[in-house]
Specification:
By secondary structure, the chain is an alpha/beta fold. Helices cover 38% and strands 15% of the residues. It contains 11 helices and 12 strands. Strands 1, 2, 3, 4, 5, 6, 7, 8, 9 and 12 form a 10-stranded parallel β-sheet that branches. A two-stranded antiparallel ribbon has the order 10-11. The protein binds iron/sulfur cluster. Residues 72, 74, 76, 79, 81-82, 120, 151 line the site of iron/sulfur cluster.
Length: 334
């Protein structure tokens, strides 16, 4: 496990980039220097970049539904859906298309512009993929953007999803290449990069980010952002998750990550991937309004909305709306 402390990085003025310029050649040194900036300076730079590309008062709202829960053969150490761990999660089979579309209609009525569907698979079977494609078509017919996360894909499966009208495919890198083996043993970092390339080649937008607070070191957060920001194309959507510890998973009981470190990770993602939507994802339930407000100031401009994030709790919708209202912010229009 990497134990580098952020204090050991020297803070250098980030004079090596033009705010808002899209680059794919970020070095680890540059990203380390961003993490080490004094907090007010880091937030100012993140805000500057954010305002070049986005309306700082708007937040894109996505809703995420678990369409097939639990029983997953992968062993991601943070995940209650893995069949490798004893958790209280109840597994269920793939939902019916109509039941999923009823949830999508409710999400739209509550203000969501994107409907994301997650299935706990290593990779989808072709017959299940057909059902998912029907769901995507139904979501599109509602005038919403669609996103799915189904595990690894073959090129024909990615093509089939593209033909159904899919807008986004989520597949996270999770953490740095060095720390990855401490978290997952059943698929490699390269497997993930290959799926991302398959999705890109099919012409589908990419949603790809990671999780912090898993016991990684500061250098692993640098490595995670470096891996994302040096992809051949930046993901259109970059979810940054704070680990939600679930009893029964190997990561339960670990030390929580300091909230300021989380905000720094959001800010560095914003600066290095200036045109991407940076999504404040899992872990919001346990964050104060003040921490969430700092994340939005640091350049996060997308949140998941709804009572559950796949299988872990998410703030109640009215709490989210009250927070946006308090901050003078509003959902991004459809
Ligand atoms: S994160 Fe996804 S792939 Fe990993 S165990 Fe959970 S459901 Fe399976």
């Amino acid at each position: 496990m990497s134990v580098t402390s952020i204090d050991s990085f020297s803070a250098a003025p980030a004079a090596f980039y033009q705010p808002g310029t899209v680059r794919h050649d970020w070095t680890r040194e540059e990203i380390r220097a961003l993490f080490a900036l004094p907090f007010p300076e880091l937030l100012f730079q993140a805000q500057t970049v954010h305002r070049i590309n986005f309306d700082p008062l708007q937040v894109q709202i996505s809703t995420l539904l678990s369409i097939k829960t639990g029983g997953c053969p992968e062993d991601c150490a943070y995940c209650p859906q893995s069949s490798a761990y004893e958790t209280e999660l109840k597994a269920s089979k793939l939902m019916d298309v109509e039941a999923v579309l009823a949830e999508a209609r409710a999400a739209k009525a509550a203000g969501a512009s994107r409907f994301c569907m997650g299935a706990a698979w290593r990779s989808p079977k072709d017959r299940d993929l057909e059902k998912v494609c029907e769901m995507v078509e139904g979501v599109k017919a509602l005038g919403m953007e669609s996103c799915v996360t189904l595990g690894m894909l073959t090129p024909p499966q990615a093509e089939r999803l593209k033909d159904s009208g899919l807008d986004y495919y989520n597949h996270n890198l999770d953490t740095s290449p060095e720390f990855y083996g401490d978290i997952i043993s059943t698929r490699t970092y390269q497997d993930r990069l290959d799926t991302l390339e398959t999705v890109r080649e099919a012409g589908i937008n990419v949603c790809c980010g990671g999780i912090v607070g898993m016991g990684e070191g500061a250098e692993d957060r640098v490595g995670m952002i470096h891996a994302l920001a040096t992809l051949p194309s930046h993901p259109e959507s970059v979810p940054i998750n704070m680990l939600v510890q679930v009893e029964g998973t190997p990561l339960a009981g670990g030390a929580a990550l300091d909230a300021i470190e989380f905000v720094r990770t959001i800010a560095v993602a914003r600066i290095t991937m200036p045109e991407s939507m940076v999504r404040l994802s899992a872990g919001r339930e346990d964050m104060t309004d003040e921490t969430q407000a700092l994340c939005l100031l640091a350049g996060a401009n997308s949140i998941f909305y709804g009572p559950k994030l796949l299988t872990t709790p998410n703030p109640a919708q009215d709490r989210d709306m009250r927070l946006l209202e308090k901050l003078g912010m509003a959902p991004m229009p459809l």
